[in-house]
Structures are given as structure tokens and as C-alpha cells.
Design brief:
By secondary structure, this protein is mainly alpha-helical. Helix content is 67%, strand content 6%. The protein is built from 38 helices and 13 strands. The strands form five sheets. It has a five-stranded mixed beta sheet with strand order 6-5-7-13-12, with helices on both faces. The longest helix has 41 residues, at 2-42. The termini are far apart. One of its GO terms (molecular function) is dolichyl-diphosphooligosaccharide-protein glycotransferase activity. Residues 582-641 form the STT3/PglB/AglB core domain.
């Protein structure tokens, strides 16, 4: 009589234990996620702690300036803002040429904080936007990985992403760039797609379209999403994994997502007119053809189905051919075949260097080196293959998406170093899956072989798998059957006990056979912990040393201590306080955003690089002799010229090192500028062996003017050589300011009257015989610049 009572009472007890275990696990996961978010935010504050709360790099200064305008003037003025301080004399319509996601996000945060009487400045909000969204990105990674392989893998992937150096490089405090919010939007969009794929919920499909819309607002990299998801849908169709859930996950995204994307002014009709989006429409048609085939299969007889399939496939192929013909016609009408220059450089890595040097000149558009992978993702490079293998056991729709994501992102990161940022989340997800599975195997092996734990583990493992189903059926009937079970024995319960005993033993024996040896499991577990510790140390070092220094303020250490180089802000402050508001400043395009934001002066070109001819004009001026360069700048109403020079302090990213790109870009539009004229036997030199064209060009003169006075030799610490032309004077430009460490030099164009003041009317007093004799003898003064 006791046996039936024990077996009946065990079900609710087991159900209660599982419920408590799940509740405790949920609470623990929540606190772990909270700590991961705090860690993701904190590790990005080294730049503020070591330096100060300042905007970094170049593009963030434009975003900061736009956010200031938004906070001051409101959203309507922002959409209609025509900026006359950039690209003089053309100007720029900001609202129609900028991805507004970052600006609107930071502006909304600033507005909310001020509404709550938290008076933070716009600059402070901009500085801390990226660290805040890095925490959001970590949580989104947890949600995505959890949908693929469970909670353990999700927590591990979130912790890895919170610290991965590749993401830190673009999300430290002060890195106010589009990627600060775009990576969160990218991961969250993928999560909602997988969530819809797993649940078939139209609610999540709608949220997915809204997340995609936010991604479109934030970054031009949204084209990666609208191509990767169609690739996955097509993969599912080809491998026979079509389902209604797949249709619900994809169809609303294409329809609603495209309509929302077209609302973004910078995208507009490009959402339906450019080649980057055509793959999504083609897969959309294929999906509907396949869905219709499955539909008619369910309502027709097999014989009629064959006839209908032939008809549907014929019509579908005809429709696809018509769409492809239209796409080919649209593509053929475009010089770039409907692709943007950056997209073409991804598909053909040699395209930019051949046809668009302005794209190839950007350092972040260069292919990465192998050491950069170890620097940016560290040990994850070795865990990614294991994570890919784990995704195949078993292979699901969600895990196949992760495999496709990692494969495509690896390729794109190998073409352009900037896209290491897209590869990093994929590497963290696959590495998190690999680490979670490995920990699961090793800890289970240890549990099975420890004395006193193995027997309980076997029973719990067997009972846990059957507990939910039994508990759902038994918990409802517990109260009604309680008295009956006490009075008479249950035959069903006895039969279940007899059946469960061999089943439990079989499962336990199977798990025991899969267990690894105890010593191997312990050693492997310790090695994984050591690997994780090495990853943490490397990430902290990268965050503190490699990626926290703002480019606007530089530091170096030597035997006599720390040296701070604040020349950029010194130069911009001089321009702001010592020049007229309407003065125009010419420089290479790298410094346009900073000049406009910090000096509040009008620039000729900036980092938007939308007008190649305008940039080529500045490059031609820098590559020309002094007189010709003066005429070019004077025609553009330029009053000051700014150059960056690192020869004195050893700063390698100066204009002399960028000069060949000025020559190439200028020569691409103005054929009289030829790169070989600046090279000696194919080598770029600035010493005594440099070509006369190089020694007499404006960039050389503005960089090395009076440089010999610093050490008496004119030794360039970047090029590690003495300059070739040490003593010369400027006739059309005058030096007005040089910073403390000679890193930024500013020159003013001399007005025409100053150039002719020294001339007299001697030519009129000369006799005609003298001038004619000079012409006949050929002894007239030659132009020294040609």
C-alpha cells in the first residue's frame, strides 16, 4: 500500500523542484546579464578615465555637430538644414544625406534626461552613447544565441561580445559614430528574425521590420541584413526546410521593411532601385511560388497536383525571367551596374584601387592582416570552427543561419578591415556555442564519475526528461485521486514503475558511455578557464591601451615620462579666435569635420567624400607648384591652408604620408598630374634623391618650411631621412601659425597686391630694343616651378 502513495506523491514534488530550479536559473541569468551589461559599459570608460570626456576620431565630430543642431533647433529644422559651412561653395543638405539613427537616438536621450531635470550637456550624452548601446548589444547577443542553442550559450556569447576588442574599437566612450548603435540594431534584427522563425509569430515579424527600419536609419551596412536573410531563406527552401514559419519570418520583412526603409531620406527609392536590394525581391518571388506549390499540394489529388505544379512552375519561371530582365535592364543602364562603389569593392577587392582611389585611400577600407584577427578577436579565432561544428549537431533553421552569418562575415572582413566589426558578433556567437557545449560535456563527465554524485545525477537526468509531461497530466488530478490512492493500490502506477526502471537505466548507461575520463575532463576544463582568462586580460589591455586614445589628443611615453600632444585642438582654437567667421580653410578631406565642428570655419572638402571632383581639385592644388596652387585656392575663395606634419615628433599619419593619394585622386580628374613625376625609380622619396616635381610641390613646401631650423639638419623622424630641400622661401603663402610640436601648420594666402607690390614700371622704361634683344637671345627669365 505504501508504494502507490510514494509514486503518486513524487510527481508534484519533482514538478515543484523543476519549477524552483527554473525560477532560480532565470533569476541567476538575469543578474549575470546585468553584470555583463555593467562590464560592457565599464570596460569602455578607459578613454574618459585616462584622458578626458572628449569626442574621438573624425566622423564623430560631424555627428556631434549635427546632434548639437538637432538639440538646439528641433527635428523639423534638422530635416531641412542646408549646411553652408561644408563643401564650399556647394554646401550640403544634411537632412537628406545623413543616416539619422545615431543623431535621433542621442538627441532623444538628451531630451529625456533634461525632461527629468538631469541637465547633461549634448557632448556628455554623445560621449556615453556608444558604451550604453554596447550593453544593449550584449543583451541582444544573449537573446539571439539563446534562440539557437540555449541559455548557457547565450550568456557566454554575451560575455564575449561585451569584451571583444573589435567592437570596443568602435564603441569606447567618445566614439560617437554610426556603428555605436548600428551593431545593436544588426544583432537585434537577427534575433527577431530567428525568434519569428522559431515561433511563427506575426507579432515578432512586425517587430523585426521595425528593428530593420532602425538599422536602416543608423548605418549603410543595413544592406548586409537585406542580403543575408534572403540567402538564408533560399538555403532553407533548397534544403527542403520550407514552412509557414519561414514565410511569416520573411514576407513581412520585405514588404513592411522596404516601405519603412524608403522613408529614410538618405535611402529613399534606393530601397527598390539599387542592386543591393534586388536579391531580396527575387527570393520574395521564389518564396511565394514555393508557398503556392505547397498550398495546392494540400488541396489537390496527386494527379492534379502534377499538372498544377507544371503550370505554377512555368508561370513562376516566366515571372522570374521577366523580373530578371527588368533588373538587368536597370542594372545595365547604370555605369556601376546599380551597385555603389563600396559594394563593388566588397565584391571585387581590386575595384576601388583601379577606379575609385578615394575609397582605396581610406585606411579602414584596406584588407586586414592576419595579426589583426588575433588583435581584434583573439582566441575566438580558434573557437569559431568548433562553434560551427556544434551548430551542425543538430542542424536547425536557427543554427544554419548562424553558419551562414559567420561564413559571409568572414569573407567581408577579409576584404575590408572595417567589417571586422560585423564579423565580431558572429565570432562571439559561435565561440559562445562552442564554449557552452564544451563546458557542458566536461562538467557532465565529471559529475558522472565523482563518488556520491553519479547515482543522483543519473536519476535526476532521467526523471527531468519525463517530468514536465507527467507533471502536467498528474498535477491536475492529484487532489481527486489522493484518497483513492490511499485506499487501493494503483495497477497503472506499478506498471509505470516497472517500465521506467529499465528506461532510466538505459539513459544513464548511454550518458555514462558518452562521458569522458575524469582526468581529461578536469584538465580540459582548466585549460578552457585559462583560455578565458587570457581572453579577458587581452581585452582589458586592448580597451585600456590600444583603443582608448582619442586621435584628437595624442600621448607617448619615453625615458623622461609621459608626453601629451594636444596640437590639433591648439590649431582649431587658433582658427576659431584669430580668423573671421566667413573665412574658408582648405585642408585634406580627413580634417574637414574637425575643422567645421571645433574651429567653426567653412571648409572646401570634408569626410563625407561625396564629390570626387572637389576633392581632386584640392589634391591637385597640393600637388602643384606654389603659384599654380595659389591660383586654385584663390579661385575657391580660400584664405587659409592647414597641413598636418609629423616629421618632428614622429607622427606617421601626416599629410606627407598621405600625399601620394592626393596625387592619385587629383590625377584621376586632372590628367596633367602624373604619379611617376613624384617618384624616383618607382620609390616615394623626400630626401636629396626626390624628383624636382616633388621638391617644388605645395605640400612639400608647406610641410618642410623652416623645418631645418629645428635641428639644423632637417631630419624627418617619420621617413627617417634628411629632407632634400632645406632652404627655401614662400612667395604666395605666409606662415601664420605652427603648433607647439609642429604637428599642425597653418598658412595664409597672400593677396594679389602683395605679390605685385615689389614690381615697378621698369618694363615700361626699358627700350623696345632691350626687350627684343632679350627675346632674340633667349635669355628671358624662366619659370622656376616648371
Amino acid at each position: 500500500m505504501a508504494a502507490p502513495e510514494t509514486s503518486t506523491a513524487a510527481v508534484p514534488t519533482l514538478y515543484t523542484n523543476n519549477a524552483l530550479r527554473n525560477a532560480f536559473g532565470g533569476v541567476l541569468a538575469f543578474f549575470i546579464l546585468l553584470l555583463i551589461g555593467v562590464m560592457a559599459f565599464s570596460i569602455r570608460l578607459f578613454s574618459v578615465i585616462k584622458y578626458e570626456s572628449v569626442i574621438h576620431e573624425f566622423d564623430p565630430y560631424f555627428n556631434y555637430r549635427v546632434t548639437q543642431f538637432l538639440a538646439k533647433n528641433g527635428i523639423y529644422e534638422f530635416w531641412n538644414w542646408f549646411d553652408d559651412r561644408t563643401w564650399y561653395p556647394l554646401g550640403r543638405v544634411i537632412g537628406g544625406t545623413v543616416y539619422p539613427g545615431l543623431t535621433l537616438t542621442a538627441g532623444t536621450i538628451w531630451w529625456l534626461l533634461n525632461s527629468l531635470n538631469i541637465p547633461l550637456s549634448v557632448e556628455t550624452v554623445c560621449v556615453f552613447t556608444a558604451p550604453i548601446f554596447s550593453a544593449f548589444a550584449s543583451w541582444a547577443t544573449y537573446l539571439l544565441t539563446k534562440e539557437v542553442k540555449g541559455t548557457g550559450a547565450g550568456l557566454t556569447a554575451a560575455a564575449l561580445l561585451a569584451m571583444v576588442p573589435s567592437y570596443i574599437s568602435r564603441s569606447v566612450a567618445g566614439s560617437y559614430d554610426n556603428e555605436a548603435v548600428a551593431i545593436f540594431a544588426l544583432i537585434f534584427t537577427f534575433y527577431l528574425y530567428i525568434k519569428t522563425l522559431n515561433t511563427g509569430s506575426l507579432f515578432y515579424a512586425t517587430l523585426n521590420s521595425i528593428a530593420y527600419f532602425y538599422m536602416v536609419c543608423s548605418w549603410g551596412g543595413y544592406t548586409f541584413i537585406i542580403n543575408l536573410i534572403p540567402m538564408h531563406v533560399l538555403l532553407c527552401i533548397v534544403t527542403g526546410r520550407f514552412s509557414s514559419r519561414l514565410y511569416i519570418a520573411y514576407a513581412p520583412l520585405v514588404v513592411l521593411g522596404t516601405l519603412l526603409a524608403a522613408l529614410v531620406p538618405v535611402v529613399g527609392f534606393n530601397a527598390v532601385m539599387t542592386s543591393e536590394h534586388f536579391a531580396s525581391f527575387l527570393v520574395f518571388i521564389i518564396l511565394h511560388v514555393v508557398a503556392f506549390v505547397y498550398y495546392i499540394k494540400g488541396i489537390l489529388t496527386p494527379k492534379m497536383f502534377k499538372v498544377a505544379v507544371t503550370l505554377v512552375v512555368s508561370v513562376g519561371l516566366a515571372l522570374c525571367c521577366a523580373v530578371i530582365a527588368v533588373l538587368i535592364a536597370l542594372v545595365a543602364s547604370s555605369p556601376t551596374k546599380g551597385w555603389s562603389g563600396r559594394s563593388l569593392s566588397l565584391l571585387d577587392p581590386t575595384y576601388a584601387s583601379k577606379y575609385i582611389p578615394i575609397i582605396a585611400s581610406v585606411s579602414e577600407h584596406q584588407p586586414p592582416t592576419w595579426p589583426s584577427y588575433f588583435m581584434d578577436i583573439n582566441v575566438l579565432a580558434f573557437l569559431v570552427p568548433a562553434g560551427i561544428i556544434a551548430c551542425f549537431s543538430p542542424l536547425s533553421d536557427a543554427s544554419s543561419f548562424v553558419v551562414l552569418y559567420i561564413a559571409t562575415s568572414v569573407y567581408f572582413s577579409g576584404v575590408m578591415v572595417r567589417l571586422m566589426l560585423v564579423f565580431a558578433p558572429a565570432a562571439c556567437i559561435t565561440s559562445g556555442i562552442a564554449l557552452s557545449q564544451a563546458f557542458d560535456v566536461f562538467t557532465r563527465s565529471i559529475k558522472f564519475q565523482l563518488p556520491g554524485i553519479s547515482s543522483n545525477t543519473e536519476v535526476d537526468a532521467a526523471e527531468t526528461s519525463s517530468a514536465p509531461a507527467e507533471a502536467q497530466n498528474g498535477a491536475v488530478k492529484t487532489e481527486k485521486s489522493e484518497e483513492t490512492s490511499k485506499n487501493r493500490p494503483s495497477k497503472k502506477s506499478k506498471k509505470k514503475e516497472k517500465e521506467e526502471k529499465p528506461l532510466t537505466k538505459a539513459k544513464a548507461e548511454k550518458k555514462r558511455l558518452l562521458a569522458l575520463p575524469l582526468d581529461s575532463s578536469v584538465i580540459s576544463l582548466l585549460l578552457l578557464i585559462l583560455l578565458g582568462a587570457f581572453y579577458v586580460v587581452h581585452c582589458v589591455w586592448a580597451a585600456a591601451e590600444a583603443y582608448s586614445a582619442p586621435s584628437i589628443v595624442l600621448t607617448s611615453r619615453s625615458h623622461d615620462g609621459l608626453h601629451v600632444f594636444d596640437d590639433f585642438r591648439e590649431a582649431y582654437a587658433w582658427l576659431r579666435h584669430n580668423t573671421d567667421v566667413d573665412d574658408k580653410v582648405a585642408s585634406w578631406w580627413d580634417y574637414g569635420y574637425q575643422t567645421t565642428a571645433m574651429a567653426n570655419r567653412t571648409v572646401i572638402v570634408d569626410n563625407n567624400t561625396w564629390n570626387n571632383t572637389h576633392i581632386a581639385t584640392v589634391g591637385t592644388a597640393m600637388s602643384s607648384p606654389e603659384k599654380a596652387a595659389w591660383e586654385i585656392f584663390h579661385s575657391l575663395d580660400v584664405k587659409y591652408v592647414l597641413v598636418v606634419f609629423g616629421g618632428l615628433v614622429g607622427y606617421p599619419s601626416d599629410d606627407i604620408n598621405k600625399f601620394l593619394w592626393m596625387v592619385r585622386i587629383g590625377g584621376g580628374v586632372f590628367p596633367h598630374i602624373k604619379e611617376p613625376d613624384y617618384l624616383r625609380d618607382g620609390q616615394y622619396r623626400i630626401d636629396s634623391q626626390a624628383t624636382p616635381t616633388m621638391l617644388n610641390c605645395l605640400m612639400y613646401k608647406l610641410s618642410y618650411y623652416r623645418f631645418v631650423e629645428t635641428d639644423g639638419k632637417g631630419f624627418d623622424r617619420v621617413r627617417q631621412t634628411e629632407i632634400g630641400k632645406k632652404y627655401f622661401k614662400l612667395t604666395h603663402f605666409e606662415e601664420v601659425f605652427t603648433t607647439h610640436h609642429w604637428m599642425v601648420r597653418i598658412y595664409k594666402l597672400k593677396p594679389p597686391k602683395n605679390r605685385i607690390r615689389g614690381k615697378t614700371k621698369k618694363s615700361k622704361s626699358k627700350t623696345s630694343s632691350t626687350s627684343s634683344r632679350a627675346k632674340r637671345s633667349g635669355t628671358g627669365k624662366k619659370n622656376p616651378w616648371h
